[in-house]
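Appendix B. Raw example, untouched.
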Amino acid sequence: MRVLFASLASVGHTYPLIPLAIAAREAGHEVHFAAGEEVHAPLAAHGLRPFRPSDSFYEIYAEDLAPELDRLRPDLVIHEWGLPGAATAARDAGIPGLWHGFGRMYPDGIGLERPRGGTHLDICPPSLQDKDFLDSRSPLRPVPFAEPGETFDGPLIYLTLGTAFGTAELLTTAIRGLAALGKPVVVATGRVRPEELGQVPGNVVVRKWVPQADLLPHAELVVHHGGSGTTLGALAAGVPQLVLPQGADQFANADALTEVGAARQLLPGEVTPAAIADSAAAVRAGHRDAARAVAAEIAGMPSPAEVARRLPDLVTRR
């Protein structure tokens, strides 16, 4: 079967699809991946045949993908939630399509159109999923993906504000609070240049980027912005979280995590070094069991390999 994957050209939107795309290729399907060139390197490294449709760089519209569907004639299009245009193009071409989630169903008003109808490959564990999201869902285990890189030994505290959010001021405040706990702290600065943070305490390691998927199993606490990738990656590893939401779907993710007892959150007006130190200590002491319960739930979801073998059945059932 020829399968076309499609995503926005960002880590947060492309990486959640890569485990299933790899599994589909390994199951014998011919896989192609439509996305902007920003994410082509990891896709090409795994033999996923990336290409940029038309003149698209980040977003892909229906008119961008239509000529590629005529060229490739895929048997199935798997498109992430951020690409409603791919759903339109597949439907217009008479090609079956599946929505692929990147986390919890996001709220209205964050700059993305909420997907409607169709079958969804849902990587969010049911205990965290939006209860109003009632479309047809097929569960798929979230598997963190990262390019290889520097390794770190645990136990450690991991701090990240993702690739699109965060400021030097917020990172510096969080570092001051976490360093006071006396544990090793690894910081991924994302869009902030490490030198903007100045001198950091001796128990803090600062990097522009770290291989998050490899680091998370060594963490005893993850402090982050509430992005879907970090949220699900930490949960899959059974690690409790302290969430500092900044925008987009992060506030909803933080609320869901606190409701299941796997995290605490500090809103922007509550963030101080002392508040971070106190909250981090409380999370490490009292939220691990809840995080491990969600990890067990995730482990029971069908793996990408299992879902890849079932793709022909998902197509015929539509």
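End of appendix B.
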